[in-house]
Amino acid sequence: MKNWMILICLYFLTSPLFAQVDRIMDANIQTVLVFPKGKPLALPIIGLNTQDELLIQFDDLSANYKQYYFTIELMDINWQPVALNPFDYTRGLTQNNIREYTISSIAQQAYFHYSFTFPTTSCRPTKSGNYLMKVFRQGRPNELVFTKRFFVVEQEVPITASIQEPFDETISKSHQKIQAQLDIKKIQLLQPELLHVAVIQNTRYNDVLISNVPSFIRGNQMEYNADRDFVFPAGKESRWLDLQNLRFKTDRIAAIQQLGYGSRIILKPDQSRASLPYFTFRDLNGQYMISNTELIRSEDQNDYAQVLFSYLPKNGVAYEGKSMYLAGALTGNVLDTNALMRWNSTSKQYEKWLNLKQGYYSYNYILRADQSPNPLHDFMWTEGDHWETENSYTIFVYFRAPGSRYDQIIGYSSLNSTQNW
What we know:
six-stranded mixed beta sheet; globular; 2 helices; Immunoglobulin-like; five-stranded antiparallel beta sheet; single chain; 3 domains
């Protein structure tokens, strides 16, 4: 019990309270995607002064053409705006018109599909760090329709990392721990605390773990491997939902209702997997892909459907003092009101309606205490935790030089738990 309390306290001490940065302010804006071009499941990361490109896509279900613009904003390590003029970190224009769009065809739900690549010839970041992509209407920055994070990285600090069993034997078979070693010979680092190492599991941005206290410093090598560093619940492989065809029921679908103006899909109720044995299968780690089995262009031919997710607790009794969340990219990777499931006292289950575009989705359920939530317990009741679970991890190294007003990302690496065995 003592070890658990230490882990809980250190989790919150090493993890700052992050602002909610991935937001959709207009209900007509759906399926906002930001990813490296050609890699739809990868985190939105590009290298500074490289040929890397991000592809940004979104649908406007109002089905009326609007002039949309985008701008970028440099943020600090805690996703707060930095005290810099936009021209200090942007080469080119600060407001850029989005010119590429197509009109939906075949789909019952009419929409305009917008897309653009970034950087452009007229807008390019000049500094590494955390950024917000901000899209707004009619050239008026105060009329934001959505914001989405992305990362611009430099490779000044090589990272060697591995996934280990936690030192605490009470969680050694249920959690995963990241060990990281940095080579800092290329930077002038007089104060080790100016360097912060951040680790993200899959795309769970809000549960990022950050440390600026290395366990060892040996010459140009800094190692992060203390008991407190980078311990994550392993969970299980993500649940899945195949919506690539809205006319045929797949294994997860209980009923399809065609309403004339669209489809309503009722999924089979989910239940706890905590007591089930672990078995491996390929999943998307909480991500989704827009695709279909019949058409040619998924971007503007895929339809939308209202989808009912439900979770049936043991004995049909709601969890007292806890909140149930539908977690994954389908709810923005944020545990907010959009991810919160509501208790239906009539059907005795938690429910959540989402408007989803045709595709293949993965997700999990998270149950958190309303008072003093512990992210290390996220999957304990709903999914179960197994050290063998396949998870992807992303490591960023942040550095704020003395006198600087922003945090550079001077190192970046990714690894997968299956690489360890």
